[in-house]
Amino acid sequence: MVKSSHLALSAALAVAAIATDVSVPNHLPTRQLLQDAYAYSLEPVWTQDYISSNLTRNLMNVIADITGKPPTFRVGGNTGDQTYYHPELNISAVALPNTTVTNTFNISNAWFEQWGSYFPQGTDFLYTLNLKDNSSAWANAVQEAAAAYSVLGDKLKLFELGNEIDHFINKGWRPSTWDVAMYIQQWRNISDQIVHSSWYEAADQPPKFQAAVFADPPWVPDQQDEIDDFDIINLTRAGLTEHDKVGSYAVHLYPQSTCDTTRWYRLSLDLLSNHSVLWRNVSQYVPQVVAADKAGIPLVFGETNSASCSGRSGISDTFGAALWNVDYVLLAASIGMPKVYFHLGANAEYSSFVPLPYQHKNESLSAGIRSLFYGHYFTAHVLAADTQQRIAQIPSANTSDFSGYAIYSSGHHHRHSEDLNKLVFIDLQVWNGTQGLSNPSTLSTTDSTSHSAGQRPVREVSISTSWKQGTCLAITRLQAPGTNAKSEISVSGVSFESQTGKQVGEIQKEQVVVGKNGQVCFVMQAAEAVLIERK
Ligand SMILES: *[C@@H]1O[C@H](CO)[C@@H](O)[C@H](O)[C@H]1NC(C)=O
Ligand SMILES: *[C@@H]1O[C@H](CO)[C@@H](O)[C@H](O)[C@H]1NC(C)=O
Ligand SMILES: *[C@@H]1O[C@H](CO)[C@@H](O)[C@H](O)[C@H]1NC(C)=O
Ligand SMILES: *[C@@H]1O[C@H](CO)[C@@H](O)[C@H](O)[C@H]1NC(C)=O
Ligand SMILES: *[C@@H]1O[C@H](CO)[C@@H](O)[C@H](O)[C@H]1NC(C)=O
Ligand SMILES: *[C@@H]1O[C@H](CO)[C@@H](O)[C@H](O)[C@H]1NC(C)=O
Ligand SMILES: *[C@@H]1O[C@H](CO)[C@@H](O)[C@H](O)[C@H]1NC(C)=O
Ligand SMILES: *[C@@H]1O[C@H](CO)[C@@H](O)[C@H](O)[C@H]1NC(C)=O
Ligand SMILES: *[C@@H]1O[C@H](CO)[C@@H](O)[C@H](O)[C@H]1NC(C)=O
Ligand SMILES: *[C@@H]1O[C@H](CO)[C@@H](O)[C@H](O)[C@H]1NC(C)=O
Ligand SMILES: *[C@@H]1O[C@H](CO)[C@@H](O)[C@H](O)[C@H]1NC(C)=O
Ligand SMILES: *[C@@H]1O[C@H](CO)[C@@H](O)[C@H](O)[C@H]1NC(C)=O
Question: Start and end of every Beta-glucuronidase C-terminal domain (predicted)?
Answer without folding.
Answer: 404-531
